[in-house]
Specification:
This protein has about 210 residues and is mainly α. The chain contains 9 helices and no strands.
Length: about 210
């Protein structure tokens, strides 16, 4: 599974390196490089936080590009969250929120439809973590569902790669597509993302306040 993810990301990064004279290819490559660099710069400090390592060990949410696949040990974990883990989960969610908005904006410049999928999968993941925080599922079940969500996203990413290649192939005459096109209007799904994140975070804080100890 990790090999597939790395290959998909590599293919997406190389999607713009087909013909140098094709403006769409240049745009895609430029935006991919910018998105990858900005995302890594924002996420790197969170990956390195010593107080977050225990959570990353139990839950496949370490902030990296591509994200880590759940390990067999994580998927077999029959434990439930305690208050200490819940407190860290709330903190991680708050820190990640700072990076997630700009990351979605970067994806939208590359492929708006992929940004909407990223928002959908991300919020589904947040709600899954909220279910874990409510002690309705085990760590292992949460990791198995995270793995399924990741597969959904990477499947859609593969489709976007294929569509990008088709669009690049269609520019054989050197016709610029998005490089000269007016910016597409931001969809309600994307513009509402920050508020949806805030709502989920308030729910997470409520779970922390409710759990004894």
């Amino acid at each position: 599974m990790p090999g597939r993810r790395s290959a998909v990301f590599a293919a997406f990064m190389l999607a713009g390196c087909l013909t140098s004279g094709q403006q769409e290819a240049i745009r895609v490559q430029r935006e991919i490089n910018r998105a990858m660099a900005a995302s890594d710069a924002c996420l790197a400090p969170l990956r390195a936080r010593p107080d977050y390592q225990a959570l990353y060990w139990r839950l496949a949410i370490e902030p990296s590009v591509p994200p880590p696949a759940p390990t067999p040990a994580q998927m077999a974990d029959t434990g439930l969250v305690d208050r200490a883990a819940l407190r860290v989960m709330v903190a991680v969610h708050a820190d990640l929120a700072v990076c997630r908005g700009p990351m979605i904006d970067s994806i939208a410049r590359i492929a708006p439809e992929l940004a909407e999928t990223a928002v959908d999968v991300g919020l589904r993941g947040d709600r899954l973590v909220l279910t874990l925080m409510r002690r309705e599922i085990t760590w292992g079940e949460a990791n198995r569902r995270i793995g399924a969500l990741q597969e959904d996203y990477f499947r859609h990413l593969s489709e976007v790669i294929a569509e990008t290649r088709r669009r690049i192939d269609a520019t054989q005459g050197g016709t610029a597509l998005a490089a000269e096109a007016a910016p597409a209007p931001v969809s309600a799904r994307l513009s509402n993302f920050p508020e949806e994140l805030a709502v989920i975070h308030r729910q997470m804080e409520a779970e922390l306040a409710r759990l004894p100890g």
